[in-house]
């Protein structure tokens, strides 16, 4: 069991930090960028879970929304698992692959395969895409989109150091970004939310400069933008 009694040591005041094996490196080192981005992703997923828990189970007409409870249940469980896996991954990224201690918990093939199994289950409910999806929607959906982009940033940092990492970690993080994308679509579908699709230039809404000027001229007038 880990026992931490003191956090501030002063050892990093000069801009360096220690890896798991004791090696000292600059906090600006790409390895620490990976570790920090993995931590950031874990925090983003915490926001997803928080927003999912805020979903209203009561419809506007006073009826129940059982799909909300289903979404909250699934998101709570899968993200609860990912919190632990990403913490384990962050620890591994903070250590050269040739110095991984025997006691360290490592991402394994089962972790990666589980992501694919869940993606397949969600996909069974979804219609094929007819366009690209834009990163907007309700708070739960937008938090998931942010998590997806942070996952891709973590992947880019890991690819830059792929010779220093176990190949399975790259496989896992690549699948995770796809997993989040499918979870976005499944959550939108279960909640009855419209996906925000990318539109070709000719189908996009016009500029709103004239509308803004009309609003300024008549403050009581409300025009939809």
What is shown here, in short?
With 225 residues, the chain is mainly alpha-helical.
Ends distance: 56 Å
Strand content: under 5%
The major β-sheet equals: 2 strands, antiparallel
What is the total domain count?
1
Q: CATH superfamily name?
A: Cobalamin adenosyltransferase-like
CATH-assigned fold name: Hypothetical Protein Ta1238, Chain: A
In the CATH scheme, the class would be: Mainly Alpha
Please state the overall shape, judged from the principal axes of the Cα atoms: globular
Determine the mean pLDDT: 86
Q: How many strands in all? A: 2
Structural class: mainly alpha
- Give me the CATH architecture, please: Up-down Bundle
Q: Which strand order do you get reading across the main beta sheet?
A: 1-2
Helical residue percent?
A: 40-55%
- Secondary structure tally, helices: 6
What Rg is obtained from the alpha carbons, in whole angstroms?
22 Å
Low-confidence residue ranges: none
Elements, N to C (H/E): EEHHHHHH
Describe the structure.
Helices cover 55% and strands 3% of the residues. It has 225 residues and is mostly helical. It has a single domain (16-217), classed as Cobalamin adenosyltransferase-like (Hypothetical Protein Ta1238, Chain: A, Up-down Bundle). The chain has a two-stranded antiparallel sheet with strand order 1-2. The termini are far apart. The mean pLDDT is 86.
């Amino acid at each position: 069991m880990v026992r931490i009694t003191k956090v501030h040591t002063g050892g990093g005041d000069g801009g360096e930090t220690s890896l798991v094996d004791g090696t000292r490196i600059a906090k600006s080192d790409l390895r620490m960028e990976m570790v920090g981005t993995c931590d950031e992703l874990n925090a983003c997923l915490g926001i997803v879970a928080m927003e999912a828990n805020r979903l209203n189970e009561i419809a506007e007409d006073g009826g129940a929304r059982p799909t909300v409870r289903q979404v909250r249940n699934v998101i709570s469980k899968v993200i609860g698992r990912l919190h632990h896996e990403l913490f384990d991954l962050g620890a591994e990224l903070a250590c050269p692959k040739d110095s991984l201690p025997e006691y360290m918990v490592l991402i394994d093939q089962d972790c990666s395969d589980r992501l694919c199994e869940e993606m397949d289950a969600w996909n069974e409910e979804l219609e094929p895409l007819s366009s690209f999806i834009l990163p907007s929607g309700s708070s739960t959906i937008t938090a998931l989109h942010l998590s997806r982009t942070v996952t891709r940033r973590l992947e880019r940092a890991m690819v830059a150091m792929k010779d220093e990492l176990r190949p399975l970690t790259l496989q896992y993080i690549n699948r995770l970004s796809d997993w989040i994308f499918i979870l976005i679509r499944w959550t939108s579908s279960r909640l009855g939310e419209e996906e925000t699709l990318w539109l070709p230039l000719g189908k996009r809404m016009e500029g709103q400069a004239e509308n803004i000027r009309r609003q300024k001229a008549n403050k009581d007038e409300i025009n939809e933008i």
